[in-house]
Amino acid sequence: MNTALLAAGVFATAFIMHLAWWRISLPRRQTAALLGLFFVVLVAWLAVSQFMPGRWFTAADRWEAIRVAVFHTACTLAYVVAYSALEHRSPSMTLLVAVADAGDAGCSPDELRGLLAGASPVEVRLDAMVHDGMIARDGDGYRLAAKGRVWATVLSAWRRLLGMPPGG
Predict the structure, then answer these.
(1) 3-class secondary-structure state, position 143
(2) Closest-CA residue to 21 (of 46, 2, 38)
């Protein structure tokens, strides 16, 4: 039980630091900032555990440190995936929040259609990918940037390794 509390505490520390940072100033590259912050917290905790053993907030031994690190890494990656859905509100999330905000009165279908009338989730994602350097605007279309080419190669290789068909 102590290891579970320790692991949750390390993750909670990173999460609270994330909330404080976002309140002060929203980073330009949020996903990269999240990954950096959460892994810096983990590395700092591992260093403290190595140099200050025996404290209530450090690992008792290397195996406990490994278990905490695995838990923290899994939770960090899961949170980053979930955060990407919150970072740019999806049409489903927009509709859900509107209905929830309406309370018992609810929303009419026309009101809900009006919420999404000017929104294009594809445009939002394309703009985010341009902003992140994954793709670049090229005249009337888009092309892969160097960073996007690396990710596309990795993801394509992963799909082939899993035996999945080509495409999205």
Answers:
(1) strand
(2) 38
Helix (H, G, I), strand (E, B) or coil at 15: helix
User: DSSP 3-state assignment of 55?
Assistant: coil
User: DSSP character for 59?
Assistant: -
Share of the chain above pLDDT 90, in %: 33
Is residue 148 a contact partner of residue 135, using CB atoms and an 8 Å limit? yes
Residues paired with residue 137 on neighbouring β-strands, in sequence order: 142
Residue with tokens 């080509």: 166
Q: Which amino acid is at 72?
A: H
Q: Are 116 and 109 in contact (CB under 8 A)?
A: no
Which of 131, 166, 12 has its CA nearest to residue 158? 166
Candidates 45, 48, 47; CA nearest to 68 is: 45
**How would you classify the pairing of strands 135-138 and 141-144?**
antiparallel
Longest distance between any two alpha carbons in the chain, whole Å:
62
Sign of the Cα pseudo-torsion (40, 65, 8, 31, in order):
positive
Chain segment 11-54, per-residue pLDDT in tens:
999 999 999 999 999 888 888 899 999 999 999 999 999 888 77
